[in-house]
Amino acid sequence: MERRTFYFSLLTLSLAACSNVETRKQANGNFDYVNAKPESKFVVPENLHQPEDKPDYLIPELENSDGPVGIKVDVRAPALVLPLAAGSRVDEFDKTAAVWFDKVDDDRDLRETVIKVITDYLATEDVGFVSADEANNTWESEWFHVEEESGYLFWKNIDLTESWRFKYSLVTKPHGRSVGLNVELVEYMHTSDKGSKTLIDPIEKQRVEMGMINAITAQLDYQYRLYNKEDRLARATMEIVTLGQSANNKPAYIIDYPVDELWNYLPGFFDSYNFKISDLNEDKFIYEVEYERIDPSLWDMIWGDELPVVEIESGVYEFHLTELDGKTALEIYNDEGEILSDQVLIQNFEILEPALSFRF
């Protein structure tokens, strides 16, 4: 929660500084050049030759001189998109979106997750939508407001108010595993004792849009953390390992993980239970391992250092993984090609059930 609040506060700070000149990071130093006047044309006496003019070195006339000069120049670094959430990225070759989100959770629809994230973030700022066109993947927000106050208690005055309204557009790849986000500032209002204005400097406009994109990305990161917590809690109470039969009607442990996922988890199990991988066949999902049975000593039991012991003899074994209705059937064979019986699997179930559950 603290990390999420930090990102949101960054957005608030960036919005609050949009047009308030005093809060900008401005140039400093000697600005005498601002008042410099062009030198008069070089005059050559009549009895001397006029030097050849080199147009390459002429200083052109200044155009669009309404922009800031001297102390009014904003010297802050350009605003950047920060792809902080898992699966977020900036694609320099695809400018159809400012930031891309790639699917990291196969159990949830990515587009719906991004829409939820935008909605949730607006809700944290007490802002809703004024329009939602899901068919065209565009949403427009109500006004965000930031105020500056002076005074104390009942004598407070609002010195400055800034307001922004945004348009959110989604771009979905045909395969549905990547969703792009664009944010556009569609309306702006600045009000102070000097009056009101609705125009915003283009650089400031980009800065505000980048700040909003980064806030949405931070909200997505927070949402992923919530999903991970929910998944861990669900898995903690879930029966992951059961006794059963494989598709070949052979005794096996039935483990509620996909085959490729369990395949990646098993090396950690082997390291903890005195198995050493001697060979593997990744295409057929077969591990060949050497098992060394080490019974705990008296001192191990006294000091609590005893390792869990799988009740089988030392030797070479093969762990065969096969797909079974979205789960994995784990068959274990000895060095003579004989499958471990139901009785052996039941005998070791109390040890292997928590070990093969991989609750993180």
CATH-scheme architecture of the largest domain: 2-Layer Sandwich
Summarize model confidence as the mean pLDDT: 84
Quantity of strands, as a count: 14
Shape: elongated
Major sheet description: 8 strands, antiparallel
Rg calc: 33 Å
Secondary structure category: alpha+beta
Order of helices and strands: HEEHEEEEEEHEEHEEHEEHH
Low-confidence sequence ranges:
1-10, 13-23
Strand residue percentage = 25-35%
State the name of the first-level CATH class of the largest domain.
Alpha Beta
Q: N- to C-terminal separation?
A: 21 Å
What count of helical segments does DSSP give? Answer: 7
Indicate the percent of residues in helices: 25-40%
What count of structural domains? Answer: 2
Would you give the CATH topology of the largest domain?
Alpha-D-Glucose-1,6-Bisphosphate, Chain A, domain 4
